[in-house]
Every structure is written in C-alpha cells, then in structure tokens.
Amino acid sequence: MKTCAFLSMDHMGDYYVYDDLLIAPMAEQGWQVETLSWRQNDVDWGRFDAVILRSCWDYQQYPDEFLGVLAQISQRTLLFNDLGIVRWNISKEYLKDLSAEGVPVVPTLWQQEFNAEQVANAFASFDCEELIIKPVVSASAGHTYRLSASDYQQKLSELKAVFSGRKHMLQPFIDNVLEEGEFSLFYFDNRFSHAIRKVPKPGDFRVQEEHGGQLFLVQPDPELLVLAEKSLKAIPGKTLYARLDFIRYQQSYRVMELELIEPSLYFNMDRDSPKRFVQALIKKLAPQADAGAPELLCR
C-alpha cells in the first residue's frame, strides 16, 4: 500500500476541514493517508510516496520557514502542488502576472510601506467610498480591513502598526459581495470539478465559514467558466488542485485570488468531488511512476 501525507498545522482551532472525505476513496485506490503538521520535526519525508498541501493555514505567519520545509520535502518525494507553484502563489503579487496576461483582476494598488496619504488617494483612484487593505501574504481574511472614506482616519494608528514595513494591497470594496457573494471554482488536474458561492453573514463582509459565511453549490455560467480557463492557462506550471475565486465587479467577473497552496476544496459540497480528486492524483502520479518520480519532480 502506498502512503501519502496530508500537510496540516499544529492546532486546527475553529477551522472547518473536509480532507477526511478523501481517506476512503484513497484507500480504495491502495493509498494510506497520514496527516502531519508542517512544523513537525524529524519527519522522514522520503517514506511517503507523495505529500499534499492541505490545511496548513498558519503558513502566512512564517512564510520563509514554510518554504524551507517544502524545499526539504520536495528533495525527498513528490509535493503537490509543487514548490515552484507555491513560490509563485504565496504572494498576491501574482495578480500582476495575471493582469499582464490579460486576465481581468480586481483593481489593486500595491504598497511597499504604509502611507496614510496613499490610502486617502486610493478612494479617489478607485472612485469608491470603501476600501479593502490586506497584506500580500495572507490567508483566511487575516489582517484584512474594510475602510470607509468617512472614518478611516480613526484606524490609522492601528493600520500603521499592522502594515508598517509590510507589503500590502489596496482594493475597492465591492459591495456585491454582500448580496451575490464570491464564486469559487475547483479544478483537479486542470479539469473542472465543482463550484460554490460564498456569502457573508449579515453585518460582515468575510465569506469564510469561520466568520459565519454561507456556502451554496452552484453551476457556473459560461462567462465564468471561460474566465476560469483563461486564469488556469496563466498559471506558470501544472497543478493537482486549484481553487479560483471570482467576484462580479462592474457587470463582469474579476479574479479575486487563485488559491494554489492550501485551499479548502470543500469536498463536503459535492459528494463526488473526493473521488474526482483521487482520480486526478492517480493520473498525475502515473507518468511519474513510469519514468521515475525523483528525476521528474519540479523543484
């Protein structure tokens, strides 16, 4: 029986995790799964046939250490998604690459250092009354602030403390998120699996379950599917899994984020999605096994 490691974190807290839904279909294909924290020391990664990044949702606090661990893993076995993809995706500055490839993204101003004047100018630049400010390396809406033109000055001291010396981004707050929400499309080995719509709870703007967001299984319309395919083609490498997040802005869809490191894949929302994931994994591994995995591993 082959062995696979799901890379997780030390303490899951209040996070919702659905990766256990993969264990049965993986067992049917002759795979045993172990879940390990990426911070766990003295792990012989070479004893695993593959390591899959899953619920390691604290990496943004220690990005350099995280990348170092992944580099060690990728020297010993197959890592999904691979290290090159992770390095590209770990900073939201990859949105610049998407834009350069003609993929429509949410308008963004990039900041190296916190500047209150730049925040004030952003309202005019985007012609909006509200902004979102967040770090370029972040997850689960951590250190994400919704700012109003009328009272953002009251938060300046807090914002300076959080973003001083830290790369961050400014975007218009898209109020459509409060009603229609965000759309997430899931692809396994570049094949569409399922899609959901995420809507925040009343009085909030964050769509994550941990913040009270609601989830709905949906069938994406043709326009959204076309944009998703275009987004996939702009990724500099091949992925086992991808979660593509979109929002409707000024009557058309825009990319919010491409989640290629450790996204929740919401296997709970589509009962056949775990089997599709495992099938994609087996397909990805087949050519590696035929030719010799260590030599073909992308590092």
Features:
Dna Ligase, domain 1, 299 residues, alpha+beta, Rossmann fold, four-stranded parallel β-sheet, five-stranded antiparallel β-sheet, single chain, catalytic activity
What can you see in these coordinates?
With about 300 residues, the chain is of the alpha+beta class. The protein has three domains: about 1-80 and about 270-295, Rossmann fold (3-Layer(aba) Sandwich), CATH 3.40.50.11950; about 95-105 and about 175-270, ATP-grasp fold, B domain (D-amino Acid Aminotransferase, Chain A, domain 1, 2-Layer Sandwich), CATH 3.30.470; about 110-175, 2-Layer Sandwich (Dna Ligase, domain 1). It is about 30% helix and about 25% strand. The protein contains nine helices and 13 strands. It has helices at about 25-30, 65-75, 85-90, 95-100, 115-125, 155-165, 220-235, 275-290, 295; strands spanning about 1-10, 30-35, 50-55, 80, 110, 130-135, 145-150, 170, 180-190, 190-200, 215-220, 240-250, 250-260. Strand 9 and strand 10 (about 190-200) form a beta hairpin. The two termini are about 25 Å apart. The relative contact order is 0.16.
Which secondary structure elements does this structure contain, and how are they paired or packed?
Elements: E1 2-8, H1 23-28, E2 31-37, E3 50-53, H2 63-76, E4 78-80, H3 83-89, H4 94-100, E5 109-111, H5 116-126, E6 130-135, E7 145-148, H6 156-163, E8 168-172, E9 182-188, E10 191-199, E11 214-218, H7 222-233, E12 241-249, E13 252-259, H8 273-291, H9 293-296
Parallel strand pairs: 1-2, 1-3, 3-4
Antiparallel strand pairs: 5-8, 6-7, 6-8, 9-10, 9-12, 10-11, 12-13
